[in-house]
Amino acid sequence: xxxxxxxxxxxxxxxxxxxxxxxxxxxxxxxxxxxxxxxxxxxxxxxxxxxxxxxxxxxxxxxxxxxxxxxxxxxxxxxxxxxxxxxxxxxxxxxxxxxxxxxxxxxxxxxxxxxxxxxxxxxxxxxxxxxxxxxxxxxxxxxxxxxxxxxxxxxxxxxxxxxxxxxxxxxxxxxxxxxxxxxxxxxxxxxxxxxxxxxxxxxxxxxxxxxxxxxxxxxxxxxxxxxxxxxxxxxxxxxxxxxxxxxxxxxxxxxxxxxxxxxxxxxxxxxxxxxxxxxxxxxxxxxxxxxxxxxxxxxxxxxxxxxxxxxxxxxxxxxxxxxxxxxxxxxxxxxxxxxxxxxxxxxxxxxxxxxxxxxxxxxxxxxxxxxxxxxxxxxxxxxxxxxxxxxxxxxxxxxxxxxxxxxxxxxxxxxxx
Length: 417
What we know:
Largest sheet: 8 strands, mixed
Oligomer: single chain
């Protein structure tokens, strides 16, 4: 098995990587326009960071984390999501002492042990943003607005914003009691995971993927009907802000998100273009997470966006990508003097910013031209010992199949032109 990638992982080859460069560049650009700064955190953290932050009732912590003991017998976990590491860094480096809000963005590798399927891998990549330091719903609207603008700029259509409020610890108490009372007669029918959730976090049962559990909770009480005055006011304000931004949305009381740290705002951008894995971007508010991880009581809000799923959606939408970079100049040589001259010329062209290639397999001239065609080169320079003696080279436009002589002292200007 040494020559096969591990299950749930995927190689990114050159014929696809240019698409990744494109979306990564677009994401960095829009984050900078919104005033976000990039943060890079380690690929792994102490397991406690995720167990405390994400919550021990979640599928991520219970079933999906890649956790191991290192040589110092410390429990280490590969990053399953981006928020907890960003919060840990915010606390460790005392960024809360700086002028707030703090606005981070990241592009990170993540790892979850789950059944691989379309758009879902065990090693995947995630864009994310976090805003720390403000309870104001303007921050929630800004986070949603950035995601909306990013998806629109990538040419993605047929996508819907769904929002909900998952309340706060205070208003959840009444909902928790009502939900448990509703579920109690069906307790024996629940899956094993949801039986655990029944005591610790029954609201997560609404998000269960089991068909039996899904049918049981179809008419269960929803959090949105139990919001306290503060949470209801915040949810109303979020809707007002989205209306002011002109961003359409629907209220979906079934959104609870898969991580325990969410409070108040929860949202998803959903599409039917890529089948069952239709959630492209999800996020919300987490006002207690920073304090839960040992920091001061500072609120936060953000989102995560899976890059693999994003690219699938772009393909389904037939979104346009910029062309792969072409080779500007291929240098074909005949003779030893020409080879030495071509080697030096190739380097000089590269130093001037051109993409230049030269045969390194000692092909004959016919083979070099064929190779230039395979590289999709814009131009081919033909250099022979005789041409060097005359001070000229032959320049062929590969798209037009036109060839002409160019003086060596005019070559750079001609190519750069």
